[in-house]
Amino acid sequence: MGTPGVLALLLLFYGGTMWMSVAISKRKESADGYMTAGNRIGFGISAASMTATWIWASSMYASATAGYTYGVAGPIHYGLWGALMILFIYPFGKRIRAVAPKAHTLAEVMYARHGRSSQLMLAGSNVLGSVISLTSNFIAGGAIIAMLSPLSFGAGIAIVAGGVLLYTLWSGFRASVLTDFVQVVAMLGAAAIVIPVIFVAAGGSEMFEAGRAMGNVTPQQESFFSSDAFMNQGAPYIAAVLAYAIGNQTIAQRLFAVREDLIKPTFVTATVGYGATVIGAGMVGVMALYLGVQPLDGDVNNLLPQMAAEYLPLLLLGLAFLMIIGSLSSTADSDLAALSSIVMADVYGQSVGREKANPRTMLLIGRATMVVATGVALYFATARFNILDLLVFVGALWGCLVFPVIASFYWKKVTNLAFTVSVLTALAMFLPVRFEFIALTGVWAVLVEALAIVGVGVVLGIMAFGFFGRKAAVWVGVVATVATLPFGFDFLRDYAVLSGSLVAYAVSFLVCWALSVRSKADFDFETIKRVTGDFDDGGLDPRTQANENTDEPTPTTTKNEGN
C-alpha cells in the first residue's frame, strides 16, 4: 500500500474517531460519566461496544494462528468458546448489577464485600491484564503497518498508541463506547467481504485438495474433531475465557454501564457477532496452512496481514487494514478506560473515601493513567510476544479469582480470609505448573492431575450454575469430575497449559470452600449498594460516616466476623 496510503487510512480512521470524541466531550466532565457513562447506555451502543471490545485484533490474529497451527478445528475452538463465554456473562452480570447497581469496577465491589486486600488483588490482576492486552493490540497494529508499508514496526506501534490515546483521553469510557459502534459496523462489514474474497483468490475449495496432496496438513489438522486442537487450544481456552468473562474490567465496565434491563439482549447479540467474525478470520489461517505459506520472519502474528497483502486487490486491502486497525483500537481504548477507572475508583476514590473524593482530581488521575499505561504498553510491545500465549496466560491467571469472586456475590459465608488465601494459594500452584518450574513427574504429577480433574468439574459447574442454579452446578461438577477420572491420570501431565488453568480453578475452589463452609459470617448484600455509588454526588460512605470521629478501623459489615 505504501507509506502515503497507510498514513492516509490512519489519518481517516483516527481523525474520525478523534472528531467523534471531541463532539461528545463535555465542558464540565463528570468523573462517573468518564468511568461508566451514567449506567444507562442503550441496547444498540452497548451491544456494539461489547462486540467490538471482545473482537480485538488479538482475537483475529490468534484465531488465524490457531487455524494455521491446529487446522480446521483451531478457529472453531477459539471462536466458539469465546462466543459462548460472552453468553455466560449475562446471568452472573444480572446478579452483579442487582447487588451493585452504581459500581464502577469489580474491585470496588470486592472492597465493599471484603475489604482492601481482595480489592487490591482484583484491581492488580486487571492492571496486569489490561497492560498485556494493550501490548498485544499495539503488537498487532505494528505488525500490519510494517507489513503493508515501508514504515517500521516501531513506527507502527507508536502511531496506533498515539491515535488511540488521543481520542480516548477526551471523554474516557463514553468515547470508547461511541467509537465502538462505528468500529464494529466497519469490522463486521469488512469481514463479510474480505474473507470470502481471500478464499476465492487463493483457489477456493481446490486449495484443500492441493494442500492435502502436497502434504501440508496432518490428519489431526484436517479433522473437525481434532484431539490435538481440543487439548492444546480448545480446553485451555474454555478455562481462560471464562476467567476473562468474570474477572476482566473492560467487560465489567460495560456491564455497569448498560441499562440493567438490557443486559441479556446485549450479551446475546455480542455472542453471535463475535463468533461469526472471529471464526471467519481464523479460517484465513487454515487457508495459509493448506497453501503452505511460511509466516513472514517466522512470526505467526504476521499471517493475517500477509494473506491479505498476497490475495486482495488494493481497495479491499485497505478495507482489511481498517478492519484490523478498528478491532485493535476498539479494545485498546477499552483497556485505557478500564485502567483509568481502576486508578480513579480503587486507588484514589476508595482510599480517600467517596465523601472526600474530588471529581476534578479523579479526572486528572484518570487521564494521567491513560498516558502512563500507553507508555508502558509501548515499551513491552517492542518485545513482540506471541499473542496467543499472552491471552492464555492472562486468562489462566484470572482463573485463580473466578470462584472466589462469583461466590462472593451469592454466598454470605465467604470471608476476606477465604478470598485472599484461596487466590494466593491458587496462584502459588498455578505458576510452577504453567511454566513447568517443577517437572511433571512422580508424586508431583499425580497431585497436579488430581487437582486438574477437580478443576474440570469446577469449570463446568460454574457454567451450569449461572443458568441453572446451585443444584444443577453440583451435579454437573461431580459428574464431570468422575467422568474425567478414568483418563485424567498419566494423561493431563502432557498438557501443562491446560493443567495449569484447571489447577488454578480447583485450588481456589477447594480453599475458598474449606475456609468458608463453617464460617459464621452472614454478610448483608445491601451493604454493597450503600458503599459503592457515584462520586460526583458527594455521597458519604456509610462506614466512614459512622466512624468519622474515630481513628479505629471499620469492619466491612457488622455481621461478618470473618472480615
UniProtKB/TrEMBL annotation:
It is a multi-pass membrane protein. Keywords: Cell membrane, Ion transport, Membrane, Sodium, Sodium transport, Symport, Transmembrane, Transmembrane helix, Transport. It comes from Nocardiopsis alba. Its main location: membrane. The keyword Transport applies. This is Sodium:solute symporter family protein. The chain crosses the membrane at residues 6-25, 37-56, 76-93, 120-145, 151-169, 181-204, 224-246, 267-291, 311-332, 364-381, 387-410, 417-435, 441-465, 472-489, 495-515. Pfam families: SSF (PF00474). Residues 536-563 are annotated as: Disordered. It catalyses: L-proline(in) + Na(+)(in) = L-proline(out) + Na(+)(out). It is found in: Cell membrane. Belongs to the sodium:solute symporter (SSF) (TC 2.A.21) family. Gene3D superfamilies: Sodium/glucose cotransporter (1.20.1730.10). InterPro entries: Na/Glc_symporter_sf, Na/solute_symporter, Sodium:Solute_Symporter. Residues 552-563 have a biased composition (Low complexity).
